[in-house]
Design brief:
The complex is a heterodimer of chains A (about 1000) and B (about 90). Chain A is of the alpha+beta class. Chain A has 24 helices and 49 strands. Chain A is elongated. Chain B has a 4-stranded antiparallel beta sheet with strand order 3-4-5-6, with no helix packed on it. Chain B has a two-stranded antiparallel ribbon with strand order 1-2. In chain B, a hairpin with a 5-residue loop joins strand 5 and strand 6. The longest helix of chain B has 9 residues. Chain B starts with a strand and ends in a 6-residue tail after the last strand. Classes of the chains: A alpha+beta (about 1000), B mainly beta (about 90).
Chain lengths: ~1000, ~90
């Protein structure tokens, strides 16, 4: 297929490398250096998309990231990326591209019907519709809107690509590789600063690339060579700076392989650079504005500067007969470029009444320049076919053409400066906002601060780069603010409410027209924040790059106030869309969160344990034998523990070594219990409160020596408890001589519980007399087991005779195996967290976070006995004295028996009485008890302790269940088995 | 990504730190002597200023020390930091 719209020569493309690509299933050819947009234009293909709301046929208007219309999907299946701007897609051999938002095809889109129904869809129509009938929302409107909305389709398979991330520091980050950016980078590096320069394009040079190749003095090549040779400079092409965060922390996304036909597996698809720059030079250029006139959105109507770019940079003629519409001088450059390339210019409609120098020159050169004239209408369905121009005297003429180049002036790209909290000031001279004074960390250079003319922007960049480097080495340097000059001469006139019939588009991507803005103002939305959100102008993926200033101009005309008085909405990152992949990097799947494995994890896994997540830990939940269900496994494990013995990995519990002359004093101040009189070799069940009196954590605390305590915490609470202890120690009790060490991972904890537990450990444990008299319940001894260090606790969370062996973690597997072997003949069974939960519930032992929720006092859960009454103060004590903390109707821990149901209650179920449906409390834990042969539950019920024997109800979807309030201790209330 | 100036380690990214609430709120010497209103003020009332705010921070993933810092709640920038026990600047 011939490229009928290529210039015979010229452009920065490599005509010796021909590339094949497909667009909507049709095959085309292009050259290396093309974008998808330029290659399609070379074939005369202008129709590239359908607009969001009205499904109007659209073509490219721009040549860069500001393109609002030509959104395409590149790639297929899981590699597909939707909503890419065809103007930024680098062509490669085999590229597959699809247009979006059309069915069944671009040329014949059924969505075009909504264009006919346009009067039904003005701004904010969704605030006034879809309300009746009420059932219609769920079944009709929402599914339809979901289906119709959006532009592209996200892939529905997991992303197979790899994304990398880097953190770098530099002295000066230069954003933008155009003339001022290159000059800034060179100046900064010559001053000795380490420089990173990034540019979103594949080649560095910015606007220099858009002028005819060969007419340039060679400055670009020389500068690039110097930069590439400097060891202080890192050049990043294809890299967009998408956001500035606190203190010059800048996010860059580098597109590493999207332009490669065969990426291979060694490279990431994208690379996220997180740069901490001491100074940033913003050299981001300026983006051209469209004109607002009825029908300004047809394919073939494009920005004048961009049309010139297609001609000069890509060697593409965007049409065969052009009309130029302008309110500034830039369009005249394009007129000359068109003429030189053999594209006849039928007319130049200049909105300005006075002729500028450029207009006069064009007239003298033979162009039909009409002053005070503007376009009031266009025609053509899939391509513009003609425009209607109204002259200064009111006379109208329809001119046939297939190309309209429009220019409304240029808007400096100030996003990053604004994100860095830089102040902007409105420059009437160029009709846009520019950076006001430099910020402490950022300077702007070149067209983005209103400077124009090649020599001037280069000089401005040099100055900015030098300044940035100086600031790195010395205290703050400043410059006097520069007066902004309009690009290419006389200032542009700002957009006005257009004349003529038909819709004049302001925001192309979101299909917002000047009528929508007028309607918003009419309805009272006069704040710029409201107009933006009500009309959605500036809210599409192009973030209003070509529409924001025009919207302000329309508001200014409609409200009769100056643009600076209207204000600006906030510039937010990302500058252009960033993939989730780049931000996620390697933190996906199994690497999203670290997985913490307990010392006996491998043994449990080999035994076929089913695991559950307890914060970041994997804990064995139950050990099914054969084809057991969870219910069966848990019943068997429970019976084994109560009848013979069970072995359990309790290693995830937090452990803190509290050491020092004031260790006991410290623990007394932190916990509710007394500790000074706790004898060496004894343990105590500690309860930790918050200062507001509510239970925060619990755990057994053992006294190893006069000055040394082994404190345990819940699994999830370990880091929090240590943090709280450190807080009080460092900032409140700094006079105490205590040191805290986290030992959670140092000690593995092997629990051996059950009537046979002593028998099993007898002979394995060395240097400790474990007879009942020598080692009573709640005592601890130091010794050895299997030759390894041992802290043996006689504690029980099951209510049976039991021990917890604290051994060094790396020794745990072989010690466990030894116990397992010894216990085989005695009926030792492995049990998991589910059984652990059931057994403790049978004894009424609470679990912090299950029975408690941060609003529960010790008395609420029957732990008043733990409070050391003689202590004058401890964390939370004062709060317990509040009347509300002793109110009789507070929720209290009770047990529940089902009256007739044989199924366990549901945790979280509410509890009511016969008097009404008001909730008295809820079920906190519920299990089937194999020991008792029936369901049991723990619950928090208002005034629970006064309700013993009372029958209450648990409302469930199938009806109310009757429950009886009982003691929370279901099994062995005297504790006989504990003290065996 | 805020840089927080730890007086022991220098400026480090905010990810390494935990916030510790308003600074300069000493736990009463004798809580039993306070009435409920005064105790409630200690537990819950904070200055919540718009502008410079003296706060406690802990360098959790660093030296582990608590320190004080003055941060502007409008601009989110840290003005100065000082060690526990040093005079308030």
């Amino acid at each position: 297929m011939t490229q009928g719209f290529r210039t015979p020569s010229g452009g920065r493309i490599d005509r010796s490398v021909e590339l094949r690509f497909s667009f909507d299933g049709r095959y085309f050819s292009g050259y290396a250096g093309d974008t998808l947009a330029s290659a399609l234009l070379a074939h005369g293909v202008h129709l590239m998309g359908r607009s969001f709301k009205y499904h109007r046929p659209r073509g490219v208007i721009a040549a860069g990231p500001e393109e609002p219309n030509a959104l395409v999907q590149i790639g297929t299946a899981a590699h597909a990326v939707p909503n890419l701007r065809a103007t930024q897609v680098e062509l490669f051999d085999g590229l597959v591209a699809e247009s979006q938002n059309r069915y069944p095809s671009l040329e014949r889109d059924i969505g075009g019907l909504s264009d006919l129904a346009a009067p039904l869809f003005p701004a904010g129509f969704y605030y006034k519709t879809f309300m009746w009938p009420a059932w219609g929302w769920k079944r009709l409107y929402e599914p339809f809107i979901r289906h119709a909305s959006g532009l592209g389709r996200a892939p529905d398979a997991p992303d197979p690509d790899v994304y990398a991330q880097r953190y770098v520091h530099c002295d000066v980050l230069v954003v933008g590789g155009g003339p001022s950016g290159l000059a800034a980078a060179l100046a900064a590096s010559r001053a000795g600063a380490r420089v990173i320069l990034c540019d979103e394009q594949a080649q560095l040079g910015g606007s220099l690339l858009n002028e005819p190749a060969g007419e340039e003095p060679g400055w670009r090549e020389a500068t690039l060579r110097a930069l590439a040779q400097s060891p202080l400079v890192t050049l990043l092409a294809r890299t967009t700076a998408f956001g500035v965060f606190a203190q010059n922390f800048v996010g860059l996304v580098e597109r590493v392989t999207d332009h490669l036909a065969q990426p291979g597996i060694a490279l990431p698809r994208e690379r996220l650079w997180q740069v901490r720059a001491r100074q940033v030079v913003m050299a981001t250029g300026a983006i051209e504005r469209p004109l607002i006139f009825p029908g300004n959105d047809r394919p073939g109507i494009m920005l004048a500067g961009s049309a010139r770019t297609y001609l000069n940079r890509y060697g593409v003629k965007p049409g065969t007969r052009a009309v130029l519409a302008t309110s500034c001088d830039e369009a005249y450059l394009t007129a000359h470029a068109f003429a030189q390339a053999g594209i006849p210019v039928a007319a130049i409609a200049d909105l300005r009444v006075e002729a500028s120098a450029a207009a006069m020159a064009a007239r003298n050169a033979g162009f039909d320049v009409r002053l005070g004239a503007g376009v009031i209408g266009t025609a053509g369905r899939l391509r513009v076919g003609s425009v209607t121009v109204q002259g200064s005297g009111g006379q109208r003429e329809t001119i046939s053409c297939d190309l309209v180049a429009m220019s409304g002036g240029r808007t400096p790209t100030v996003h990053l400066f604004s994100q860095a909290s830089g102040k902007l000031r409105y420059e009437p001279g160029i009709g846009a906002y520019v950076p006001d004074a430099d910020t402490e960390g950022m300077v702007a250079a070149g067209a983005c601060r209103g400077v124009s003319g090649l020599e001037s922007v280069i000089a401005d960049g040099e100055q900015a780069g030098g300044l940035a480097a100086k600031r790195v080495l010395a205290p703050l340097q400043t410059r006097k603010p520069k007066r902004s000059q309009p690009p290419f001469g006389s200032p542009a006139e700002l957009a006005k409410l257009p004349e003529g019939k038909g819709r004049a588009f302001v925001d192309f991507q979101n299909d917002v027209t000047s009528k929508d803005v007028a309607q918003a103002l009419r309805e009272g939305f006069v704040s710029v924040e409201h107009v933006k959100r009500y009309t959605t102008s500036g809210m599409a993926t192009d973030q209003g790059k070509t529409s924001n200033i025009n919207t302000l101009a329309l508001m200014s005309a409609g409200l009769n106030s100056e643009v600076p008085d209207i204000g600006l909405t906030t510039y937010r990152m990302p500058y252009t869309p960033v993939t989730f992949g780049a931000l996620a990097g390697a933190a996906r799947g199994t690497l999203f969160d670290p997985v913490r494995k307990a010392p006996l994890h491998d043994w449990a896994e080999a035994k076929g344990a089913v695991f559950e997540d307890v914060s970041l830990w994997k804990r064995a939940r139950y050990f099914p034998v054969g084809r057991e269900s969870m219910h069966q496994a848990v019943a068997r494990e429970c019976k084994a523990v109560r009848n013979s013995a069970g072995i359990f990995d309790a290693s995830t519990l937090g452990k803190i070594e509290v050491v020092g002359p004031d260790a006991a004093v410290f623990l007394e101040r932190m916990y509710v219990n007394g500790f000074r009189k706790l004898a060496v070799g004894r343990t105590r069940y500690g309860v930790l409160l918050r200062e507001d009196g509510f239970v925060a954590d619990d755990g057994v605390i053992g006294r190893i020596a006069e000055n040394r305590f082994h404190v345990t915490t819940t699994t999830g609470g370990a880091p929090r408890v240590l943090a709280v202890m450190e807080d009080y120690l460092q900032t409140e009790f700094s006079d105490l001589r205590v040191w805290l060490t986290s030992t959670t991972e140092e000690w593995a904890v092997i629990a051996v519980q059950g009537p046979k537990s002593r028998e099993i450990l007898d002979g394995l444990v060395e240097g400790i007399d474990i007879s009942p008299a020598a080692m009573p319940h709640m005592s601890l001894r130091e010794g050895r087991v299997c030759g390894a260090k041992l802290r043996l606790f006689r504690v029980s969370f099951t209510g049976e005779l039991g021990y917890e062996l604290n051994v060094p973690s790396d020794q745990a597997p072989r010690i466990w195996e030894a116990i397992w072997e010894k216990g085989a003949s005695l009926g030792l069974a492995a049990y998991g967290t589910e059984t652990m939960h059931v057994l403790r519930a049978e004894k009424g032992y609470i679990i912090v976070g299950q029975e408690t929720d941060g609003t529960v006092t010790p008395d609420d859960v029957g732990l008043s006995w733990a409070i050391g009454q003689a202590k004058p103060d401890f964390v939370g004590k004062r709060s317990l004295a509040r009347p509300a903390m002793k109110a009789p109707d507070r929720k209290q821990l009770v047990g529940l028996e089902t009256v007739s149901s044989v199924s366990a209650l549901e945790e979280g179920a509410q509890i009511i009485n016969s008097a009404g449906r008001k909730s008295l409390g809820h079920v906190t834990s519920a299990y089937h008890s194999a020991t008792l042969g029936r369901p049991i539950a723990l619950a928090m019920v208002a005034a629970g302790r006064a309700r013993m024997g009372e029958v209450l109800h648990v409302p469930m979807p199938g009806g109310d269940l009757d429950v009886r309030v009982v003691s929370p201790v279901f099994y062995d209330p005297e504790g006989v088995r504990l003290h065996a | 990504m805020l840089l927080i100036p730890c007086p022991y380690c220098g400026a480090r990214p905010e990810l390494e730190f935990s916030y510790g609430g308003e600074a300069g709120i000493a736990r009463p010497e004798n809580p039993a002597a306070l009435d409920d209103a005064a105790w409630s003020r200690f537990l819950y009332e904070r200055t919540n200023p718009r502008g410079p705010h003296d706060e406690r921070w802990r360098h959790t993933h660093g030296c582990g020390r608590f320190f004080n810092a003055r941060r502007n709640t409008l601009t989110d920038l840290f003005v100065i930091s000082w060690k526990v026990g040093e005079a308030v600047p």
